[in-house]
Design brief:
alpha+beta, 2 helices, single chain, about 70 residues, five-stranded antiparallel sheet
Length: about 70
C-alpha cells in the first residue's frame, strides 16, 4: 500500500507529518484527511483557528498530491 503524509497548514504555521499512513488509494487518503480535520475542529485549538487550516496530502517523497481545506469540511 502507498504511504501518504498529512502535512498541516494551521494559520501561519506548518506541521510536517514525519511518519505517514499507509492507505490503499487517494480516495482513502482524502477521507483520512477529512476525518483528521473534523477531529481538529472539535478541539479548543480548532475552535480558535476557525476555518484557517488545511491538510496537504503528500506522497512518500513529500510531493503534494492535493489539499483538503477546513472550509471544505
Amino acid at each position: 500500500m502507498p504511504l501518504y503524509r498529512f502535512d498541516w497548514a494551521l494559520g501561519e504555521h506548518r506541521v510536517k507529518d514525519a511518519t505517514g499512513v499507509e492507505l490503499p488509494d487517494d480516495d482513502a487518503a482524502r477521507e483520512h484527511a477529512i476525518i483528521e480535520i473534523r477531529e481538529l475542529l472539535d478541539t479548543t485549538m480548532g475552535k480558535r483557528l476557525g476555518r484557517d487550516c488545511a491538510i496537504e496530502v503528500c506522497d512518500a517523497t513529500g510531493r503534494r498530491l492535493f489539499r483538503v481545506s477546513c472550509k471544505d469540511v
